[in-house]
Specification:
The chain is of the alpha+beta class and 454 residues long. It folds into two domains: 95 residues, no CATH class; 336 residues, no CATH class. 61% of the residues lie in helices and 10% in strands. The protein contains ten helices and eleven strands. The strands form four sheets. A four-stranded antiparallel sheet has the order 3-4-5-6. A three-stranded antiparallel sheet has the order 7-8-9, with helices on one face. A two-stranded antiparallel sheet has the order 1-2. Helix 2 packs parallel to helix 5.
Length: 454
């Protein structure tokens, strides 16, 4: 009787193990389309001499592939943020439509050429002022458009910081749960959830992480700043940087803005700073053209024989800087008689200074006297287009690399429905065999009890 009872206990344990293995297979099948799910498998181990079995769960996760995917997501997040901003900047220039600043330049300087034919014509003089106004309006439009994108990008920094803090707090909460669930199916579900959060975090900020002996994850920034340690998370903060008013990023009271290398947050800051560079070039263009035209205009005389005055006016935010020139440039005169078309001692019909003002168009005033205004602006347009194209190409490259890595991970961690079908049949057959053995033992025990009773 003792051996029969032991056999029944072993069969009971075997049936429970096969049933548990079946539940694992069913969970795999249910999550076959879940890209965050890690395939699980039943691992059997003999625990009694009579052949009883216990079962545990094994998850097929490749930590190296997980980490590599996170690293590539950091680069992708940065390039996507930059590409989005730069594509908006590129559309602002709008040079392919036959309008834009190049057209305004041509119209302005060509108006002096037209005026030189009939210097005393008030209509042609008014045309000079109209074209000058069109030039300032185009500079205003470009400046305002770029600043609008820049402010939008800057305003995304605090919201991205909040998103990062939300994720790190969730990772810390999962760290608290996972060590207490070691060996259970729930543990692996929590680990899958945590890994998904780590990848989402990687797309936002450059990170590094490692798993401790307890099963929790420690997460740092790329430069070593602590974001998550065990059940504790450490929040980033955003606040205006001194001198610029743009949002910076702090961790533990230290400014880490300049240390960010990848992720969406780095991409936003990088795009914002790139736009500052474009605005600086636009300000230099506006200030240089205004100063040179004013200089030449002052060298001539107007329709009444009075020496010319400034044609343009502008203000800058500080001495020795052109910052603000494109935003503030305006026409300094409104009376067409004051257009200084004549030379210093010329009469109403003299066109000497009009020709010299027209010639400013071809003067090399920029980049250590190697570029005209048109060439300088064309180079700015090229910079914007090249930066945008580089970001777009990098996105394509990163997506390709990510796809390859995820395919490799799917080969390890993904669910193979054919394999699960085989396992399902295997565990069902094993369960049926155990059930038959239990029936035999039950029948045998009944027969023995009947014999004893007889």
């Amino acid at each position: 009787m003792t051996s029969i009872l032991s056999g029944l206990e072993s069969v009971k344990q075997a049936l429970a193990s096969q049933q548990f293995a079946l539940s694992i297979t069913q969970r795999n099948v249910a999550n076959a389309s879940n890209e965050s799910y890690t395939r699980e498998d039943a691992v059997f181990a003999d625990v009694t001499a009579s052949g009883g079995a216990a079962v545990s769960i094994q998850a097929y996760r490749d930590r190296f592939l997980d980490f590599s995917i996170g690293q590539e997501m950091q680069s992708l997040g940065k390039q996507q943020a930059q590409s989005s901003a730069l594509s908006q900047i590129d559309s602002i220039f709008n040079e392919n439509s036959g309008q834009g600043l190049q057209e305004a330049f041509s119209g302005f300087f060509n108006s002096f050429s037209s005026l030189s034919a009939t210097p005393e014509d008030l209509t042609l003089r008014q045309q000079v002022l109209s074209k000058a106004t069109a030039l300032t309006s185009e500079l205003h439009r470009l400046c305002a458009g770029m600043q609008r994108v820049q402010y939008s990008v800057n305003s995304s920094v605090p919201s991205t910081v909040d998103e990062i803090n939300s994720i790190t707090s969730k990772i810390a909460a999962l760290n608290k749960q996972i060590p207490g669930e070691t060996g259970s199916g729930n543990e692996f579900a929590l680990r899958d959830e945590r890994q998904k959060l780590l990848e989402n975090l990687s797309s936002l900020i450059d990170t590094s992480y490692y798993e401790t002996e307890s099963g929790s994850i420690t997460v740092t920034t790329g430069q070593g700043g602590l974001l998550v340690a065990g059940k504790d998370s450490y929040s980033l903060e955003s606040s205006p940087l001194s001198g610029s008013g743009f949002q910076g990023v702090q961790l533990g009271g230290a400014d880490i803005t300049s240390t960010l290398r990848s992720g969406k947050l780095s991409g936003l800051i990088g795009a914002r700073d790139q736009i500052t560079g474009y605005l600086t070039s636009l300000d230099d263009l506006a200030a240089t053209i205004a100063a040179r035209v004013n200089q030449q205009h002052a060298a001539g005389s107007d329709l009444d024989g009075i020496s010319g005055t400034d044609l343009f006016s502008y203000t800058t935010v500080s001495t020795g800087s052109n910052s603000g020139a494109a935003r503030s440039i305006s026409i300094a005169i409104s009376d067409p008689r004051k257009v200084a078309a004549a030379g210093p001692s010329g009469g109403p019909g003299n066109n000497e200074n009009a020709n010299l003002l027209f010639a400013v168009k071809d003067e090399k005033l920029f980049t250590t006297s190697t570029e005209t205004a048109s060439q300088f602006y064309a180079h700015l347009i090229y910079r914007v287009g090249s930066d945008e194209q580089s970001a777009a190409e990098e996105i394509t490259t990163q997506k390709s690399i990510l796809a390859q890595l995820k395919n490799q991970r799917d080969g390890v961690s993904g669910v193979d429905m054919n394999e699960e079908a085989v396992n399902l049949i295997k565990y069902q057959k094993a369960y049926q065999a155990g059930a038959r053995f239990a029936t035999v033992l039950d029948t045998l025990s009944s027969d023995i009890l009947n014999l004893i009773g007889a």
